[in-house]
Amino acid sequence: MLIYRWIASAARWTAPGLAMLSLAGLLAVSSTSAVEPEPSLSREAAGSAAIKFHQIQEGSLPGHSLGLVRISETEANSYLRYEMASDLPPGVSKARVRFQPGRPQGFAEVNFDKIKEASKTPPNYLVDYILRGVHTVGVDGTLYGSGGSGQFHLESVTLDGMAMPRVVVDYLIDHYLKAHYPDISVDRPFPLPYSIDKVSVEAGALIVAGRPMRSGR
């Protein structure tokens, strides 16, 4: 899911871990220094990620096999920086992901005033009181996918390093996140797109495995 239609729509990201990239764009991490661009990010790595996303899409075509695709943290973050920055919702910038064993993490800088301006729904009083100005937001959870089905369990969302109340998190998911990504699934199973059979997160990488090759007949 996190793949998580998770970096502009889920169809473009093609995998649950990629959906996490979208989630990272709206609900994102804990220290301002963590969101500064890293020297390792590059257009070359972004291009490598784009090729792998295309490979995931083609893997569902008759006569094609996805096999095993490894998307590194550098590739994912380079793609976010060089290819997806302009597609993030208004008020969201410096989106990044971090891959830990079984745990995708997302972070970004969020201007809540701009997000509320773009919303068609008047903000909840409590949310409006807490979420004002520019902050760094972090998302942490677990991701698992097998047998063509995946699930992302959201464990925490932080605002400038402080855990946000669950009522505020639920409101953000319902009124802001789903407004941009209506099909996103949090804490419930979702079908893995294309021919993806399994998805897992290891240190520094997202691993996507495909189902056996289908005949074109």
What does this structure look like?
With 217 residues, the protein is of the alpha+beta class. The chain has one domain. The protein contains 7 helices and 9 strands. The protein has helices at residues 10-13, 16-26, 43-58, 73-84, 112-118, 125-130, 166-180; strands at 68-72, 92-100, 103-111, 134-146, 149-159, 162-163, 190-191, 196-202, 205-210. The strands form 2 sheets. Strands 2, 3, 4, 5, 6 and 7 form a 6-stranded antiparallel sheet that branches. A 3-stranded antiparallel sheet has the order 1-9-8. A hairpin with a 2-residue loop joins strand 5 and strand 6 (162-163). The longest helix has 16 residues, at 43-58. Residues 1-37 have low confidence and may be disordered.
Characteristics:
single chain, 217 residues, alpha+beta, six-stranded antiparallel beta sheet, three-stranded antiparallel beta sheet, 9 strands, globular
